Amino acid sequence: MQRPVSAAQVSLATVAAEAGVSVATVSRIVNGETRRASAQTVTRVQAAVVALGYQPNHVGRALRRRQSRVIAMLAPNLDNPAMAAIAVSTEAALRAAGYVMILCDTHDRADLQDEYLQAMRSQRVQGYVLVSAVTSPALSDALARGEPIVFVSRRNPEGGAYVGIDNHAAGAAAADYCLARAITEPAVIFPAQGSSSTAERVAGFVERLIARGVEADRIRRASAPGLSHLQVGYDAARTLVSASAGGWPKGLLCVSDMMAYGAYRLAVERGVAIPETCLLIGIDNNPLNAWIAPWLTSVHIPYPDFGAKVVEQLTALWGGTMPEDILLPHSLEL
Known about the structure:
single chain, LacI family transcriptional regulator, Peripla_BP_I, alpha/beta, 16% strand, six-stranded mixed beta sheet, disordered N terminus, 434 Repressor (Amino-terminal Domain)
């Protein structure tokens, strides 16, 4: 027989034709019901499934059974590649587990986050994934009701299941990198509206420098208001390098790659060579860096691995267990 072009085109009918049985028989076997078929038939169907690469449509089956298989992800500023990478990873993992994901952009605003939480609750979603959540009344109410919520990248002040990296250690790794290159007075820039993740990165950076002998008052720091990390990076770098502040440091930690892009824009405008004059260090290791920012050193966060861990945390919550935090490994990429 002629084989399908790709596994995506393989249906129950394709498997049935390959195995020489009815579609109903294939449907029962792939759904775990094997009592009505002989051992030889089960083996033949299973071999056809493997040979053809058939993937059962868990979502379609759940919808036919009228089960709630919808998960809501709330994330801020989806124009940030890091947010998009988390969303892509989580959607793929949920889809593989038989769930549909709804994605909402909160724009880092508590009122929008509450609006979406209330709307999703009315849709009877089975769980929530909150990326870089902010404190809000509806979130507190949802936690009080014991609704299954997994926090990603930014911890919730009220506690809850978490997936992310050790942000404190990531900041410390940036400090070690600077010191290893004889940059003894590096600086750091960060958003004025600090989150737990950015605060931990700054703290890890500063504390490691002090622990290794750098005087606290020699560690320059600057922040800027706003939600766009591009603009915050630009504005904070401008504050840092103003004439009264001492010019460009030899090394500068930006708590996200997007902030590093903003700082780089200022450097280009002022004719400052990067990284020759100032080594810029970001955190994220955005895949775009290889294309548009070869000058950037960045702490790699394994966003493609987040999705499976989010599903793992949700599964534990559905089982009535509050899981331990899941911290994925990070590494500093040149």
